[in-house]
Amino acid sequence: MIDRFVRLFTSLKLTVVLLALGCVLVFAGTLAQVHLGLYKAQNEFFRSFFVFWQPAGSSLRIPVFPGGYLVGGLLIINLIAAHFRYYRKDFKKVGIILIHLGLALLLLGQLLTDMLSVESSMHLRNGDTKNYSEAERSFELAIVDTSDPKADKVVSLPASKLKAGEFTLPEVPFKVRVHKFYPNSSLLQNREEGYEQVTTTAGIGSGIWWKELKHETEMDRRDMPSGLFEIVAPNGSAGTYLISAFLNRPQELVLDGKRYELSLRPRRFYKSYSIHLLEFRHDRYPGTEIPKNFSSRVRIIDPASGENREMVIKMNSPLRYKGETYYQASFDKDDQGSVLQVVRNPGWLTPYFACVLVSLGLIVQFGIHLVGFARKRKAS
Amino acid sequence: MKALSKIIPWCAFALFAIEIIVVMLPKKDGELHTKEFGRLPVLMNGRIQPFDSVARNSLLQIRSTGDVPLEQVPSWKFWHHAKKLRSTEWLLEVFFKPELADTRPIFLIHHPDILSEFDLAEKGVEKSGLRYYTFEEIKSSLREINNQAQIASDTKDEVRNTYQKQILKLANAIFLYQRLKNSIEPEGAESLVKMVSDFEAAMPAGVAAFRAQQSGEELDRDALARFARLVQPFDAVANLAQPLTLPPIHPEVDRNAWQNAGAGVLGALTSDHGIHPAVRYFARMADSYGSDDAAGFNSAVAEYRQWLTPKFEKEVNKARAEFYFNQVKTFLHATIIYIAAFVLAGGALLAFGSLPTLFEVLRRSSFYLILLAFVVHTFGLVFRMVLEGRPPVTNLYSSAVFIGWAACLLGIILERVYRVGLGCAVAALTGFVTLLIAHNLAIGGDTMEMMRAVLDTNFWLATHVVTITIGYAATFFAGGLAIVYIVLGIFTPLLSEKVGKGDSDLGKALSRMVYAIICFATFFSFIGTVLGGIWADQSWGRFWGWDPKENGALLIVLWCAIILHARWGGLVRDRGIMNLAIIGNMITAFSWFGVNMLGIGLHSYGFMDAAFKWLMLFWMSQVAIMALSALPLQYWKSFQSPANQEPPSSPDIKSAAGARG
């Protein structure tokens, strides 16, 4: 029994079957992007153990196909198991071993990236300085104590953790009661079919109509959460507020002589240094509107190390600093502001090593084949 | 006989070589030096190019052809050269005799709704089932065409229907045509020389009057009105002109600051250098062309070039080189040679085994022609690279050219190893097909367009793009060999013919070839894909994003891995390998073209983009061949005698099994 099990996991047949499943998965996942959008298709097909099929109108989710994690995981097991089983000391096997070592590194590196990498972005107008980047899709409920003129005290909770109920936050002298929370919503200033009126008791919010929307799957759009939050101080309610990603300014609240700002804002990642945008450039080819290059001249100001220097971030030439990489991602329509993509990816070097290993392996392996073939021909 | 069999291949080679040399020799100009005009440099689409390229690419966008036929000749009268306007000749008419250009049938309209809506079905000129219309004929419908196009352009790209796409294309073509008409001479001008000198004469008084008006002083209203009337046409040109025809006044400051003809005249108002000096040459060209004064036109062109050369030698030379490249039509001639080579290789394969002398003559002829085609193909490829200052692959068009080139090179190497004509046949086939695809892709317009920001990197274009394209070429080549295997196997006894001195037969040899090329393809596809990931990491901060193009590349790598592992594991034999290689064709076609269509072909129901249709046809043809190969082996001509049945296990399986024990 165990023997059969081992044989199955070390067999080339399994390799071929898994590779074929991988092909079908990639093909289907690519086609699915047309309807689901890149982001959702990616999660359903590649970052999953199973691809589920949900019959229209039912809540049943039937696994119909192995997902990316399952196929990839089995391939790695198959690869490692087969190597242990067939391993022999043979110069001719060096190529094969190198190739597969590289592949394993590549797959593991991607898994590492999947789990550990954090992407965010930093939007700077010319002349702006920021010490934080913002998540592109996730929001946070931020409660900012602005009573100290020197530094704001920020407490935040990811929007994904918000649900109807009550919670407390450290260093905040009040409880927050969530009356309603829509992870994606639409707000209007007039009544329309399907919208209901927001019932607040404080702050901006009267005369606003809202409704819940479905989770957004399009690549270039995102969920805009809104919620109805009641602030419950020890001596009773301090008002029910509408807090929404649509509101440009935070709701304000004064309690015991302290000023608080409440907002749902893109999740922030604070840095120990700040980045100052000196100038964004959008170069075009002469006589046309075809973009030639986008670049941002920035200054890094790091009080900890005392660093203060100028750098240029442009297409194909990112800035790497303290484990984070800044890429030129987008820009403002008036060419006066720049959006930098900020990526923290501890595994970013693995593909480079993997590529070298596999290339070497392929060269050795096919080189051996070629030499053998040439010898045989010469002999005949 | 033996001597003859050596001479004939060389004769075939010489025949085509002479043709090529004749084509490559520089041609004389006619009475009117239109070619000399066509060589002059201008700046358009962000790059220096000759007038001829402006003409050619505009005509391709408007008419889908590079020149304008003037008379209809039945196709069976192949000896009769139909009179036609070459691209530059057409552009000269558009610039300087717009009323004549308006009567040339250049607008390609074929959507039945457009034809009936604008009452065009009875008008126009028909050629090969397509109808072409003159500007005169559609002039009265301009407003409505633009209205419809406006609606179409407000519709999202994916949901536009065929009518909307066609009307938008027509409106764009008309707009381009009108811009070209106003690129040098304002439309309807009698004499550009006179207009320029009138402008110059009226300028001091006009400017003085204008300044007086600005500061609220007493002014000469007549002078101002007179001058405004003179400014207006040049202002129209400044706004409409398509190519930037005038070189920078101060090239030492900014070499890219080319201007259009209108701006060159109006520049006199805002700077102290007066009217741009080049305007006078163009004015003389315009007037002498308009009055059919060939000598005057020729001297104006020659003097302009003389004036231009000292300061702008680089631009002049680049434009001349590109003009030459346009004229030679390298890839067209390579295509012709590929066809001839394919016919010869096919003949050779038929004679294989039965008529050894004829086989060798035909094979050798085919091989020499492939070598010649390769030289011509390489010449074109390198010429383009030099013109662009880029690695070989920069867009879909050049990828097609490059795939053909790489496949041809593979074929030559293969033919050197196995001298059975197969390398020639597949090289000729892929060379021909890819150049045909390239030709059709070129109809979109300029094939040397500038690279958008993120692509503007020769390093990654030279590494990632080239390796991945070599991978495409190799998988197509392997797929091509597989098709040859199945066709020969079923319809001829050739696969069981012995090859060379060993005891291997052609079938086995083919199987080894496919295996070797799949190895090659795996190597390049994998390296190319990973390099692409690294490029993505450098420019977007992620190694892998499951983007359709990336997935396409990954599919090829996975598929090659399947073929190799299936062979090593003894899961498939020769026929299986061949079928897998044919699926490889389908996958590569999907990665190369299909992923670019995802937004088009699948999204808008009921509408099939032309390229999508071709992809489907290609897929169906491949499936048909695979279905054919499902025929039991005893019905294959090559395996009919029991002795020739495929052996139960191939040597590779034994070695794989041995490796395990």
Q: Structural class from helices and strands of chain A?
A: alpha+beta
Task: Give the number of helices of chain A.
Answer: 6
What kind of oligomer do you see? Answer: heterodimer
Task: Please state roughly what percent of the residues of chain A sit in beta strands, choosing from under 5%, 5-15%, 15-25%, 25-35%, 35-45% or over 45%.
Answer: 35-45%
Contiguous runs where pLDDT drops below 50 for at least 5 residues of chain B: 600-608, 644-661
- Give the helix proportion of chain A (percent range): 25-40%
SS-derived structural category of chain B: mainly alpha
**Counted beta strands of chain A:** 19
What is the terminal separation of chain B in angstroms? 56 Å
**DSSP strand (E) fraction of chain B?**
under 5%
* Shape category of chain A: globular
Question: Can you count the helices of chain B?
Answer: 25
Short description:
The complex is a heterodimer of chains A (380) and B (661). Chain A is α+β, with helices and mostly antiparallel strands and 380 residues long.
List the SSEs and their pairings.
The complex is a heterodimer of chains A (380) and B (661).
Chain A: H1 2-10, H2 12-36, H3 38-46, E1 50-53, E2 62-66, H4 68-86, H5 94-116, E3 118-125, E4 129-145, E5 153-158, E6 165-168, E7 175-182, E8 185-188, E9 196-197, E10 209-212, E11 226-233, E12 236-244, E13 251-255, E14 258-284, E15 291-302, E16 307-314, E17 319-321, E18 324-331, E19 337-344, H6 350-379
Antiparallel strand pairs in A: 1-2, 3-19, 4-5, 4-14, 6-7, 7-11, 8-10, 9-10, 11-12, 13-14, 14-15, 15-16, 17-18, 18-19
Chain B: H1 2-24, H2 34-38, E1 41-44, E2 47-50, H3 51-63, E3 68-69, E4 84-85, H4 87-96, H5 98-101, E5 107-108, H6 112-117, E6 125-127, E7 130-133, H7 135-138, H8 142-154, H9 162-181, H10 192-214, H11 221-240, H12 261-270, H13 277-290, H14 294-308, H15 313-328, H16 330-351, H17 356-388, H18 396-417, H19 422-441, H20 458-491, H21 506-540, H22 548-568, H23 574-602, H24 610-629, H25 651-660
Antiparallel strand pairs in B: 1-2, 3-4, 5-7, 6-7
Helix pairs in contact in B: 1-17, 3-4, 3-9, 8-9, 10-11, 11-12, 13-14, 15-17, 16-17, 16-19, 17-18, 17-19, 18-19, 18-20, 19-20, 20-21, 20-23, 20-24, 21-22, 21-23, 22-23, 23-24
